[in-house]
Design brief:
Blueprint (H helix, E strand, L loop, with lengths): L1 H15 L12 E2 L9 E3 L1 H9 L3 H15 L4 E7 L2 E6 L1 H13 L14 E5 L11 H19 L3 E6 L7 H12 L28 H17 L3 H13 L3 H25 L5 E2 L6 H13 L3 E3 L5 E3 L9 E4 L7 H16 L3 E5 L5 H13 L6 E5 L4 E2 L16 H19 L5 H21 L7 E2 L2 H4 L7 H18 L15 H11 L1 H11 L3 H20 L8 H24 L9
Parallel strand pairs: 5-6, 5-11, 6-7, 11-12, 13-14
Antiparallel strand pairs: 1-2, 2-4, 3-4, 8-9, 9-10
This protein binds arginine (ARG).
Arginine binds next to loops.
Length: 591
């Protein structure tokens, strides 16, 4: 918004000087780190200096002189320091902006830039028969936040959970179940040992993902002594792929119970999907897909009888699409899934929110897509780093296993309950537990989103729940404080005419920050990042806190000024809420 205005202004001057007119992206208008230097600064003189064969300082001086001549009301003054062109916004403009913002506060930051475009965002994608772990939290909340952000920009968003529900591992699991399923102890009966029976429908207690993990682990333990189990696993998978009734039934059972557990976790996390279609959905098409690629001479027989697509032209290792034994692969299923998505949904963009470690897989997929002319959508691998424990090592239990996500969530809720118990003594038990859950989930999500997605996250319970630090509870708390001021003021919709009373730097600092909101949201989508939006909201909270802690609002006896300040508070609260909701974090009126 304001950046566009400044860009246009600069472009006009370039034209009037008969100077080379730079493309809009080339004209960078930045906010300096120190707001005393300028509200916005442009480095354009450095771009022009070479072409004009003049030192940047001189170019900047001419620009400043010319801008000063036409100076629009938005700008208070413009000056140059070291070749930069520095702009200062006028108070009059800032007051007017607040008045506009206040009126449009509910839709502020929304745009229609993505209108008419579909985007598929694939995230979470847990593997069935395995518990979700902390890494899944990162893809889940990152994908959800990006989906919210794109939706806010007018895109038609399709949220896709691409379950990992097919592959050779199910052959191993079926083998393990057939061999040892009847030895799984039922936890229901305490010390008396009862056993599950193989028949899915007649077991004595619901089978859990935990049981399946146990079976899977046992398979690998036994494999060391009985290498022949490997063959059996392959055979069971081949039978499953060929449609064997019993194996199919077992697989369906494993899938169903896994989905049920996942749904429970998503409900707690307040995460939704439009489509749950996983790898198994594409299994039927794989044989004909591979045959077709062979016929078109895109795929060939590689070493030892496997089928591959050569990717030499992309400097990538060949894509393996069928094993020598005929089994399909992860990549084959991804090719089929891509084809299906492009045909059926015709998206403009397709985002895969998947960890860094799968970079090669996606490079191969995207390269194969080029060879196959699957090019109607812009494909992006939205990579992210690891989530590490406080010791900067992989988060795991004492036995070295990854901690199930459900335990992480439970711990966050317990810790938040302790804090809420101390902080909010005069609330009912029900209110307290709702607050604790909202605080805990918000804290977990913000912890995932505030870091640049390419960086690893060092997970820290204390900082994550610190009501005074860069955390969701701090932002939620700020919102609740603002709401409480508004509630006490008993003011509903105000006339926003009286803003001349706003004269303090602290007030203008907030308004300037509010003006950056739409650009921040647009940047988030452009770079598929959330850390900039998180930082924006943190800074907004800091400014708001500094304001109401030092400037009288409710107690102000200058009534027009009191009202003007309330307008500022209400607008700030509203944008804080919108921003947090984009991150998938709920606000609270009371903490
Ligand atoms: N289920 C896979 C895993 O846990 C991630 C799936 C990523 N998405 C994809 N289209 N390959 O490793």
């Amino acid at each position: 918004m304001i950046r566009d205005l400044l860009k246009n202004l600069v472009t006009e001057i370039l034209k009037s000087q008969n100077w080379p007119v730079l493309k809009s992206e080339k004209i960078q208008i930045e906010k300096p780190d120190n707001p005393n230097f300028a509200d916005y600064a442009a480095n354009i003189a450095f771009h022009l200096a070479k072409q004009l064969k003049k030192p940047p300082q001189e170019v900047a001086q001419i620009l400043v002189k010319e801008i000063d001549k036409v100076k629009p009301t938005e700008i208070e003054r413009v000056e140059t320091v070291d070749g930069y062109v520095n702009f200062f916004l006028s108070n009059e403009f800032l007051r007017q902006s607040l008045s506009d913002l206040y009126k449009n506060r509910k839709s502020y930051g929304k745009s229609s830039s993505g209108k008419g475009q579909k985007i598929i965002i694939e995230y979470s994608q847990p593997n069935i028969a395995k518990q979700m772990h902390i890494g899944h939290l990162r893809t889940t909340v990152l994908g959800d936040a990006l989906a919210n952000i794109y939706k806010n920009l007018g895109y038609k968003v399709i949220r896709w959970n691409y379950l990992g529900d097919w592959g050779t591992q199910f052959g191993k699991l079926i083998t393990a179940y057939k061999l040892w399923g009847n030895q799984l102890k039922t936890q229901l009966s305490g010390s008396t040992t009862k056993y599950l029976v193989v028949e899915p429908l007649s077991c004595e207690r619901p089978l859990t993902i935990g049981d399946l993990t146990e079976l899977y682990v046992k398979f690998h333990q036994e494999l060391k002594e009985h290498p022949e189990l490997d063959r059996r696993g392959q055979e069971e998978f081949a039978k499953l792929e060929a449609g064997d009734k019993e194996n199919r039934k077992l697989w369906e059972w494993f899938r169903k119970l896994s989905v049920k557990e996942f749904e429970r976790i998503y409900k707690t996390l307040v995460i939704n999907f439009d489509i749950w279609l996983g790898e198994s959905h594409f299994e039927k098409e794989l044989k004909s897909l591979v045959a077709d690629l062979r016929k078109r001479e895109i795929a060939e027989i590689g070493e030892e009888g496997a089928i591959i697509i050569k990717l030499d032209q992309f400097n990538l290792p060949p894509a393996l699409i069928q094993k020598a034994d005929g089994a399909s692969l992860y990549l084959t299923r991804d090719i089929a899934a891509l084809q299906y998505r492009l045909d059926k949904y015709k998206p403009a963009k397709l985002l895969y929110v998947v960890g860094n470690e799968q970079s090669l897989h996606f490079e191969q997929l995207f390269a194969a897509a080029k060879i196959l002319d699957l090019n109607t959508a812009e494909l992006s691998h939205i990579k992210y780093g690891l989530v590490l424990g406080e010791d900067k090592k992989k988060m795991s239990t004492r036995e070295g296993e990854t901690i199930p996500l459900e335990e992480v969530i439970q711990k966050a809720v317990n810790l938040a309950s302790d804090i809420v118990e101390k902080k909010s003594q005069n609330l009912s038990e029900k209110e307290k537990s709702q607050i604790a859950e909202t605080v805990a989930i918000g804290a977990l999500k913000y912890e995932m989103l505030k870091e640049h997605r390419n960086s690893d996250i060092v997970f820290g319970w204390e900082k994550m729940l610190d009501f005074t630090g860069n955390s969701a509870p701090y932002l939620q708390y700020t919102f609740a404080r603002l709401q409480s001021i508004l509630a006490k003021s008993k003011i509903k919709n105000q006339k926003s005419k009286l803003l001349e009373e706003l004269k303090e730097n602290k007030e203008f600092a907030i308004i300037k920050h509010l003006l950056d909101y739409p650009d921040t949201v647009a940047d988030s989508a452009r770079n598929n990042l959330t850390n900039n939006l998180a930082l924006y909201l943190y800074e907004l909270s800091n400014l708001a806190n500094q304001f109401y802690e030092t400037v009288p609002i409710l107690k102000d006896d200058n009534i027009p000024r009191r009202n003007a300040r309330l307008i500022l508070i209400q607008t700030t609260a509203s944008i804080l809420k919108s921003g947090l909701e984009l991150l998938g974090i709920n606000v609270l009126n009371k903490i």
